């Protein structure tokens, strides 16, 4: 999560205590809410931002491709030979098709955005000495995060303590 600008800042190779000291964080209390807010402003959210294509570019992309080129060629040939009725009808159908494709794309994008919002990862983070669940995008360098078995790791992290794999023997199998 820390933006690496040079080899001096390679925190994965440093001793855990040195990293905690460098990040000015106490592993027993975590960051204060104010310090976390300051770091969020300094480093930005823990998220990958996707570049959205402009609407006009999405619209124009509907006029590219082999089938679209054949239909456009038919419209041009109709105009060249003077069949203006055919030219206008083909042009209207091309525009109608592009509008339908754009509408379908917007519906799919909206559904995907809603799905991403519903599946947004959370993290159990220590702030002001207490664990609280926050959006993973609000994690900042120096946060102390509790990870449980089967949970998605919400950011690049260093393990500072914990139990290794624990296997509960809920059911015992016997052979005949």
Automatic annotation (TrEMBL):
The chain crosses the membrane at residues 63-81, 87-103. Keywords: Membrane, Transmembrane, Transmembrane helix. It is a multi-pass membrane protein. Pfam families: Cation_ATPase_N (PF00690), E1-E2_ATPase (PF00122). It is found in: Membrane. InterPro entries: ATPase_P-typ_cation-transptr_N, ATPase_P-typ_TM_dom_sf, ATPase_P-typ_transduc_dom_A_sf, ATPase_P-type_domA. Residues 10-83 form the Cation-transporting P-type ATPase N-terminal domain. Gene3D superfamilies: Calcium-transporting ATPase, cytoplasmic transduction domain A (2.70.150.10), Calcium-transporting ATPase, transmembrane domain (1.20.1110.10). Its main location: membrane. SUPFAM superfamilies: Calcium ATPase, transduction domain A (SSF81653), Calcium ATPase, transmembrane domain M (SSF81665). PANTHER family: CALCIUM-TRANSPORTING ATPASE. This is Cation-transporting P-type ATPase N-terminal domain-containing protein.
